[in-house]
């Protein structure tokens, strides 16, 4: 099958936010029933969050919206969003069966090499995904590490945990880079 990829440029610096109006225009032009919109929140590398209202607007088009929340724990740690806000994307699933939220243990738990992630989706989409996934795609080591990470999540993501320390270091580094390289913005 041939797939057309449409790129919609982001809003200019310093926000680099998604241009929701142009994305919706492209969805309407191409037909929602044959469109997948990929959204990252928070965005890498800026850490900017996609407002829930924008996700609602995109999901309201009827297109399949895949929300990549790989860095969600870092946004919560940096107080860019509260826990209730970070969980509000999950609450949208009951309203929008065309929304898929993907997350990973690669970032907050440091399990990138084990390739352990998951999707949260409406049952219809989850069943379709299960039909095409590889059999035995999670090995025993990855599963054990993920279970342990869940048990220790409050420690790992807590106020004195390694995720907080890393998030603070990244924030300091990004401020330093932006102050020294204003011409980039």
Low-confidence stretches: 81-86
Within the largest sheet, what's the order of strands?
A: 1-2-3-4
Q: What structural class is derived from the secondary structure elements? A: alpha/beta
Oligomeric form: single chain
- Terminal CA distance: 39 Å
Give the biggest sheet.
Answer: 4 strands, mixed
Task: Give the CA-based shape.
Answer: globular
Q: Strand tally, please?
A: 4
Question: What average pLDDT do the residues reach?
Answer: 82
Estimate percent helicity: 40-55%
Q: Strand share of the residues?
A: 5-15%
Alpha-carbon Rg, integer: 18 Å
Order of helices and strands: HEHEHHEEHHHH
Count of alpha/pi helices = 8
List the helices and strands and how they pair.
Blueprint: H1 20-30, E1 36-40, H2 52-59, E2 64-68, H3 72-77, H4 83-91, E3 99-104, E4 117-121, H5 123-132, H6 140-151, H7 153-156, H8 162-180
Parallel strand pairs: 1-2, 2-3
Antiparallel strand pairs: 3-4
Which features characterize this protein?
185 residues, four-stranded mixed sheet, 8 helices, 4 strands
What does it look like?
- The protein has 185 residues and is an alpha/beta fold.
- Helix content is 43%, strand content 11%.
- It contains 8 helices and 4 strands, in the order αβαβααββαααα.
- It has helices at 20-30, 52-59, 72-77, 83-91, 123-132, 140-151, 153-156, 162-180; strands spanning 36-40, 64-68, 99-104, 117-121.
- The protein has a 4-stranded mixed beta sheet.
- α2 links the parallel β1 and β2 (64-68).
- The longest helix is centred in the C-terminal third of the chain and has 19 residues, at 162-180.
- The protein is globular, with a radius of gyration of 18 Å.
- Mean pLDDT is 82; it is low at 81-86.
């Amino acid at each position: 099958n041939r797939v057309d990829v449409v790129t919609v440029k982001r809003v200019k610096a310093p926000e680099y936010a998604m241009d929701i109006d142009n994305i919706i225009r492209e969805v309407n032009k191409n037909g929602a029933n044959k469109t997948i919109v990929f959204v990252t929140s928070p965005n890498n590398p800026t850490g900017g969050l996609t407002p829930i209202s924008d996700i609602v607007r995109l999901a309201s088009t009827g297109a399949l919206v895949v929300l990549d929340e790989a860095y969600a724990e870092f946004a919560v740690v940096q107080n860019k969003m509260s826990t209730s806000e970070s969980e509000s994307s999950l609450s949208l699933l009951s309203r929008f069966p065309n929304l898929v939220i993907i997350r990973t243990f690669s970032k907050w738990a440091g399990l990138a090499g084990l390739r352990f992630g998951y999707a949260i989706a409406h049952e219809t989409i989850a069943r379709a995904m299960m039909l095409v996934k590889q059999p035995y795609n999670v090995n025993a080591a990855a599963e054990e590490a993920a279970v342990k990470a869940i048990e220790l999540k409050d420690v790992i993501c807590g106020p004195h945990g390694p995720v907080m320390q890393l998030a603070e270091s990244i924030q300091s580094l990004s401020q330093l880079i932006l102050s020294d390289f204003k011409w980039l913005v």
